[in-house]
Amino acid sequence: DVLAGQGMYRGRAVIIATGAMGRTQTVPGEEALVGRGVSYCATCDAAFFQDEDVAVVGNNDEALEEMLFLTRFARRVHLLVPTPDFRASPDLVEEVQAHPKVQIYAATRLTEVLGSDGVEGVRIKPRDGDEQELDVTGVFIYLQGNKPITDFLHGQLPTTSSGCLEVDDMMQTSIPGVFAIGDVLCNHLKQAVVSAAEGAIAGMAVGRYLSGRENLRPDWH
To answer: Taking the CB of residue 117, how many other CB atoms lie within 10 A of it?
Structure first.
């Protein structure tokens, strides 16, 4: 049974796709310049910054992987790490620290995105220093804030320390008949096409579950 709104709904299977809550606050200039130098997806937009200087904000695996992708195009990447230490896998951190195109600013916050028609720079604030400006034409932001919306489950399904649901290859959770897709899984590839593919897999898996079949039988036409 699923309690939603003012009603109770009964079904033999359910797909959880409640998504995640984004950051509740942005820095000055960020929203106004989205799509004009401010981006949240290097794999989508990196090619627009060929031989230019850009900034990346973040400290986790996603931020570092996206930043390394940017180095294929950008002339220089300023990595703003809001915490004193990285919160990413050691191998990834080591690769970033050794990259000749990357300049790291530890314990440094992004305080403002500068520009009118496009990004012209960023203002940053080191924890133990004065504000300064960097001349960049792009800023890629990967700050923590994508919190999966799973609190309504009240512990009925196991989650990771970040509140993410875990599923098998067919998008099924540890409870038979309960599936999950999208941002509740905390995949670092936050692409609509990824969620759509997960939805297709889950839909087929639900059909298999309801019919009692153990394996999917593809029908090629």
So the answer is: 8
